[in-house]
Amino acid sequence: MSETATRRSVEDVPLGSSHLSSTTVVEELNGYDFPELEGKEPQAQVEYLTHELEVENRIKDGAENLLELHPNVSRRDVVVLRLIKLANTIGPSRNISSTYYEKSSLGQTEVLPRMHRENAGHSLSVIIVYNCCSDDFRTAMTLATTQIARLVVHSRPVSTTPRSPRLGPLSAEEQESDTSRIEAMDTLVSVLKRNTRVRYEIDVVELLKAVQPALSDTASKESRTSAYRLLRYALVEAEAVERFHELQLDWYLVRSLAKDNKYHLEKEQALLLIRAMVNIGNSILERHAGAGCGSVAVSERVMRAMIAIAEQPEDPFRGICLVTLTEILLIDSELIYRAGGIRVLIQAISDGPPELGPLFVSAFLYIIDAPRTRVYIRPDVDLENALSGITDAYGKGEDNIDKVKACAKIVQVILRTWSGLMYLCMNDMKAIRATIDTLRIPSLTTREVVLDMFFELLNIKTPDWYKTFISGRRLTLYGRGRSNPVKQSTHEPPPKPPEKLNLTDQYTGLLLLVLVKAGLLDALTAMLEESVSDPALARKATLLIAEVLEIANRVLPLSEASKIQALPKLFTLAADYTNGPNRIMGTTALSSLDSFNRNKTRLQHITQSSGRPRANSVEDAVRRNQRQVEQNKLNFSMQIDDKTFQNLLIETQVTLTRDQTQWNYEILMDLLEGPLLNPKRVEEAFRVAKWGKKLMTFFHPFNHRFCDLPKTKTNQKWVHYLGSLLVTLLKCSEGRRFLIEDVFLVQTVDCFAQLDPSNGGSSSDAVFSRKRVQTTLTYAYLEMIGILSKYPEGVELLERFHFFTALYHLSELSGRDDLIKQVVPTIDYSTDGHARVVLAKALTSRFTDVRLYATEYLGQVLQTSPKACSWGLRMLLTQLYDPELDVCELAIRILEEACEAPELLDLAVEMQPTLDHLGEIGDPLLLKFMSTSIGFEYLHSTDYIEREMNAWFHERNAHYVVQIEVYLSKAFSPGGLEDDDLLQVAFEGTAPPHFYGAMAKTEMGCQVLTEKGHFAEFAHFIRQHGLESGDFDLILKLKSVLWAVGNIGATDRGLPFMEEEDLIPSITQIARESPILSVRGTCFFVLGLISSTIPGAEVLSDYGWEATISPLGVPTGLATPVDVDEFVSIAPWDNPSLRDGLEGRLPPLSNQMQRDALTAIYNLGNNVIANAASRTLVRLKSRPEARSTFTSIPLYFQALHTISTQRYRLPVRRYILELFDIRLDAGTITALSAYRHAALGQPASMRRDKGQRPLTMIRTIQISDGEEVNTFKEQTMVRYASAHLATNPEKSARARGEYLRTHFKNMREVAAAVSGMKLAKAYTYLGDVQEHKQVVPFRRFNGGVGRASQAKQFGATQGRWPEKSVKFLLRLLKNAESNADAKHLELEDLFVKNIVVQQAPKTRRRTYRAHGRINPYQGSPCHVEIVLTAIDTEIERAKDKDDVTSKRIGEGLNRRQQARLRIEAARA
After folding, report:
1. Of the candidates 1041, 967, 1078, 959, the residue with the CA atom closest to the CA atom of residue 504
2. How far is Cα 344 from Cα 1180, in angstroms, rounded to an integer?
3. Strands in 1093-1142 per DSSP E
4. Which range among 425-434, 823-832, 1119-1128 shows the weakest confidence by mean pLDDT?
5. Cα(first)–Cα(last) distance of the chain, in Å?
6. Quick one: how far is CA 979 from the chain centroid?
7. Angle of helix 1193-1205 relative to helix 1210-1219, nearest 10 degrees?
8. pLDDT digits (tens, 9 = 90+) for 517-565
9. Which residues pair with 1417 in a beta bridge?
């Protein structure tokens, strides 16, 4: 039977049948060999088929993987036949398995629980069946719908027996249902993971309702874990996340996140679900609003739950919560601000994981850039806390050094961004000054870390000789070791234009200017003044001063650099003859600076591009004398007699022993440098005597004497000797004749032949094997070829012995790229011939590594050899057509560097290469061509200019901005730019070439630019949107336009465009006033580009910007504002006020015990009274009559609302949730929603009038026939005892302490003493009481109180100093002050409006006396309430006397004073 017939027979079975007969399945398998299915039940048959299907699929996957290995044809045919057989087997099995499941599950949904109970392993077979047919959408959708139906069935209650609300073990029936739910959810997860389309097709609302029972407290933690995992894969759209919140399912997240680490899997999946919701549900409130202005579909209650975990240092999920909060900060800054996450992230910068600190601070710097998100940061508070690791390091000990180092990295990140630099410059650079002032604190470890931080900030590289300077040794002796003379090249490199400062140097110059204004040099000088300072640390500070002076001289304008170079304080100390130690310190520092500057040029490692010494240098006379001495020495050594020469040959020991270690190397070298330069002596030594033959035998490859020596420093002398010997033999005909007759060159060529696989030899045994070349002196034979190629006679020998033929084959050897890489650099390419052919063969090798290496070396040849211009440039241009893109990119980069020389650029343009096939890779080189008139005409004729101009005007300008900002981000990152990163960006330091800048370099380019009118459009856009702050698309375009006009203005021909449109004043205004800080930075770089020409520098000087000029009078491309403070200043801002998440205030609770419980829950958030509140809750929970209190839905909702709107630590949140004997399930969620709507949407009859005491609503749940009836009643709520005094709540702040363990009477007298005082005065007074400088007068409870003279100022005689009561009152005042600060009240205007002390229930204890007696020992705790109020505006006194007399005469006087007033009035 065919597969189609089988499928038709299966589809003919009616869907209503609940099972398949065994006959039906067997009949369907006619034609297939399955004898094992006979006599088995249908379910067993399906399981067997599923297992066989899995096995066959594994075989199929293995066969397919085998096909990818390109086997032989015969083996491939066998595998193909096997695949055909597997396809015929898998087809009917797949159809039968899928059809059986459809008929047994989809057709009869109600039998699923029964089938599960009969066979708990059935879901595993379902997963296996689905894995085999994952590509079938219909099957996957059917399976997903079926599993959702299973979840719906299991969401129904399985038992009607009520259980205790306290959590306990599940019953057997509940455990079975829970297991079934887990299996269904795991199956559904596998479906959603393998078929993405199903995620968008399923009914999300139905799925959420079906999954909700699995999230409740009645389910197991494994069930909740699977449910969160399922929701993570199911929620793929923003609408689905909205449905999630509409069903109030985020309460489950709040509950799960508050659990301890025993539920770590559940918490992990809950956090992963939240991260998925963040990625899915975020949206932008306004188009082009920018970062931080979006909306995240995460509720505030969930945010506070994550914040509580992020605040817990020991929690394993703290890191992921901090990272998630950082991501949300960049999307929805308002949500983080509202939930209190700003404080947590700021604290995590200094106290969190050190590796995450730069990430957190970068997020804050990003939102500080724009004014819309900047308002969520408290100026002078938030980011300054991140610097506390350095500013508060004094006295912390050596254990705190790691925190100081981590904080130093944070400071580097902040100061290397525009937003961070300008933020810290607020308030007269207070934060930067505080950081610099740590250098004045006598802490050696902190000082050293801060000094290293400034070295990193200013990009100061510290070579090895800096350690010599710091250790106090003389620099004049450093590096003066004996060195071997090196043969100098006779070629001079082409002259290069003067280098301009790169972008990082421009920013470093401005940063240095800010640091100097903040007192960096003064702080370093103060370090030198201390006599107790570490000498090494003082020298390190001196080194930093020297580097600062050098950087200032290089990157700052002359006016600013001269102020820094003056060092007035240091010179004042050196000239202070009245103070000997200071004078010694000053002169020592100046002497060290002078020594450093004198030796720096000599000690710096400078790559010698040319070995030709200067003719007018001071060492020229010394060199002439040395050459004369060497010539005289040479003449003397050549004139020795025959006997002396023979004795020298014998003394070398060459003829006496074969052991080269016994040879006299010094005499051997003297012979080469003296007598053997005479042709007669060469013939005598090599052709007549046996000395030369025995010497040369040592170097023969096949003798394995020289080539088997290990590659050590000691044996390197023989490599040098071989090269010198060959040079000596080449200089005379006798020597060349000896080389021809000797077998040395023949054997060397034969060594190359050993590498040819066709010769049948083993490459591992060859002389030039990879191991020998790397570990022995065999590599010297490759260098020998280079030595011979430098002389015409040597080239003849190479041609005679077919060395070049061997080198041709060498470039095509597989796996031996190391040989060609060693040969190519040694050959001399100055003459045309076989050497250049060898290089050409390497450039066209079939191995990419060889081509890359040869291309890179060709670039070095172009830079060092002027004669290589034509042929080298032609070879390099051929590499532009290499099939490998990496080779093309390398060739482009080398050509771009080579074309810095005008003659090479003209030569390359004349060759007119075609670069269209390279795309954007060839753009930098084409922009170089555009800078010349010939090149511009050539590109204009090919329509390249027209195409690129349109592309840059619409798109490429924005890409240019991104390219530069990515480079600056990498350059200023903590790790800096690595070597790999330099290749990833299109420029190395200086700003990349710009299309419009290249156009402005030629007259024809300026003409085309004028005709197109692009510059006029740029100018109009700058004037119109220069101060844009909201639309980030416009801001990006503004940056691109600024870079375009800056590159145009950086040329002599482009500056008239700027003057014609009068753009420079507009750019300087944007640099001063733009609300976007990164736009100011862009203007800073753009003005630097404009200052790169002398006319541009002169124009900028008229607008308050001074350009940096080199000593030769050439602009360096850096301009700094004359008024730096104005450039880096930011306008202050106010933080937005917080608003409650609910639409109105919740009504008060009706039951007194519930109110007490809620008050205690409020107090748990106060660290001062948290212990007393906890005891109150424990006492309430233990009362029998309070059992219904912690099962009340209104109290439960208000407790949840409290922890969702206020800050509570994670253990406190867990404690509050565990107080209630309420299971969080679907019924509880419904009751919470009903109470919320009833409480906030109450009718008018229940609204309270002004002055009426607030009402609360208590929900009573009555269960009748399985239904709940909700009733509500009105109750009153007790307010603060002093609430009526807070006439203006917006200007008042309160604090309350309960059950304070201090004596009530003492506390009452202390409170009476501070009542009415201003807050600052109260702090001072209470502090004096603690130090017994002032007394607390006792007026009411003064029985037995002694007299005190300090009480006279209060009009009393008795007084005490109750320290315990003062301590509690100080903590309450601090708490009230914090609440006032949260309301943004002026702390200086606060005074104690009212303070109430009430007696609390006495504590009952006992004291044990003598003779077994026990006496009561009671305590007298108290409750204290404090109200702080801001001083109201004073009202002027009335001037009319009538207003004064309207007051009742004698009011406020005693009886005697009133009588006296009446008598005086009668007499009058």
Report:
1. 967
2. 33
3. 1105-1109, 1115-1121
4. 823-832
5. 137
6. 19
7. 170
8. 998 988 888 887 775 566 778 888 888 888 888 888 888 888 888 888 8
9. 1405
- Give this prediction's pTM: 0.68
Residues 1428, 1292: contact at Cβ < 8 Å? Answer: yes
Of 342, 356, 351, nearest to 304 by C-alpha is: 342
Give the Cβ contact number of residue 533 at 10 Å: 17
d(CA 1451, CA 1461): 11
d(CA 505, CA 1191): 68
Q: Are 1419 and 1403 in contact (CB under 8 A)?
A: yes
> Residue 515's pLDDT is what?
92
pLDDT at residue 1436, as a whole number: 54
CA distance 1087 to 1080: 11
Report the mean per-residue pLDDT for the chain.
77
Contact predicate 1058/1090, CB 8 Å = yes
Neighbours of 467 (CB within 10 A): 12
Contacts of 35 (CB under 8 A, 6+ apart): none
Tell me which residue of 1156, 1144, 1155, 1149 sits closest to 1257, measured CA to CA.
Answer: 1149
pLDDT tens profile 615-668: 444 445 555 555 555 555 555 455 677 788 888 888 888 888 888 888 888 888
Identify which has the larger pLDDT, 1152 or 816.
Answer: 1152
In angstroms, rounded to a whole number, what is the distance separating the alpha carbons of residues 242 and 384? Answer: 38
Q: Which residue is associated with the tokens 């591992």?
A: 764
Q: Where are the beta strands (DSSP E) in 1315-1365?
A: 1336-1337, 1359-1360
Q: What is the DSSP letter of 352?
A: S
C-alpha 1227/C-alpha 297 separation (Å) is 24
Q: How far apart are CA 974 and CA 406, in angstroms?
A: 11
Please tell me the distance from the alpha carbon of residue 985 to that of residue 992, in angstroms, as a whole number.
9
DSSP code string of 1134-1146: -PPPP--SSSSPP
Phi, psi of 1253 (to 5 degrees): -70, 145
Q: What whole-number percentage of the chain has pLDDT above 90?
A: 16
Tokens of 601: 């040029």
Q: How far apart are CA 1174 and CA 319, in angstroms?
A: 30
More confident residue, 1310 or 78: 1310
Run of H or E including 348 = helix 341-351
Q: Is the pLDDT at 1277 greater than 60, yes or no?
A: no
Residue 230 · residue 222 · CB < 8 Å: no
The phi-psi region of residue 1131 (left if phi > 0; otherwise alpha if psi is between -120 and 50; otherwise beta) is beta
Pair 1365, 1305: CB distance under 8 Å = no
1418: tokens are: 């009671």
How far is Cα 100 from Cα 19, in angstroms, rounded to an integer? Answer: 8
The confidence band for 267, taking pLDDT boundaries of 50, 70 and 90, is very high
Residue 741's contacts (CB-CB under 8 Å, 6 or more residues apart) are none
CA distance 1011 to 1434: 70
Please write down the long-range contacts of 306-311, taking CB distance under 8 Å and 24 or more positions apart: 306/257, 306/271, 306/274, 307/339, 307/340, 307/341, 307/344, 307/1207, 308/257, 308/258, 308/1208, 308/1209, 308/1210, 308/1213, 309/257, 309/1210, 310/341, 310/344, 310/345, 310/348, 311/344, 311/347, 311/1209, 311/1210
Q: Is 823:839 a contact under the CB 8 Å cutoff?
A: no
Q: Quick one: pLDDT band at residue 1210, thresholds 50, 70, 90?
A: very high
Residue 865: the pLDDT is: 67
515 or 924: whose pLDDT is higher?
Answer: 515
Cα–Cα distance between 476 and 596 in angstroms, integer?
A: 10
